[in-house]
Design a protein that fits this description.
heterodimer; A: about 140 residues; mainly alpha; flat; B: about 80 residues; about 90% helix
Chain lengths: ~140, ~80
Amino acid sequence: MTTPIIRRIVGWLLPFLWIFSFYIMLFGHLSPGGGFSGGSVLGACLILDRHVNGANAFGARFTGERLLKLSLAALLLYGILKGQSFLAGVLHMNGLPIPLGTPGNILSSGLILPLNVLVGIVVAVAFYLIATLFEEGHL
Amino acid sequence: MNTFSMLILGLMIIGSVAVSYVKNLMSAVIVFMIYSLMMAVLWEQLNAPDLAITEAAVGAGITTVLFVLAIRRVRRKVS
């Protein structure tokens, strides 16, 4: 199903989609977007790349096992960060700060930025692995 | 709700009814994608751009890809 038209257009479109997904993920706390939206756009990028270019350099470097490990690490880190915030709130201690954030300053919101990026990684890997598993029957 | 939103809403209703009447499965998937895209535009009109991005990525992108892959697999098994 990969005609030259699709290959050409995807080659033009893919870099902008990558940048857009990272923009949504990194600026999710200041503008529309967030971890899930950015992760789903990133997952769509990965699926498109895999479908059009086949198991290219990206697919050879990031096999299913490595991506699962990456997703698991992101999930564990998310649990630790969120858990310490939760426990610090329950025990009336001062955990990592979560300020309100000011528009234009990406680091002004403390913990929200890494949490958004971690959620994005988990969602992107999940979408990519589901589609790959569906299309090829194995990771 | 302005006229543009009503127009989009009408297109959504037409699309969602047309999905069940279209005979060709691939065409049905495309019509479903149009429905999802119209829904993303409607979310943006209702001041929820956050949800519009998610709807456009999931509804129009990934769901369509999964449906198309499923149709291809089923056809290969049948014929």
